[in-house]
Design goal:
With 78 residues, this protein is mainly α. It has a single domain, classed as Orthogonal Bundle (Arc Repressor Mutant, subunit A). The protein is built from 4 helices and 2 strands, in the order αββααα. Strands 1-2 form a two-stranded antiparallel ribbon. α2 packs across α4. The protein starts with a helix and ends in a 12-residue tail after the last helix.
Length: 78
């Protein structure tokens, strides 16, 4: 089992089903947003002491793997 699968969960009872780090209420989106804004892994860990370096790396891997899916954009209303 990959590190990502062990660490990232999708549970409708936690954060309304957003992908999050197991055992926390920290979303993958939150982690990726911090990193994309230029924060280091160490800064993310300071802000979220419940996370580990492996959690942050699993978030990145999860986000990267999501880009491997096919996306279709359809208008909601005409």
């Amino acid at each position: 089992m990959s590190n990502e699968v062990e660490r990232v969960i999708i549970d409708p009872e936690i954060l309304n089903g957003k992908p999050s780090i197991r055992g926390t209420r920290v979303s993958v989106q939150t982690v990726v947003e911090y990193l994309s804004n230029g924060d280091s892994i160490e800064e993310v860990l300071e802000n979220y002491p419940s996370l580990t370096r492996d959690d942050v790396l699993a978030s990145l891997k999860f986000a990267a793997n999501m880009m491997d899916h096919k996306f279709i954009v359809e208008p909601l209303a005409v």
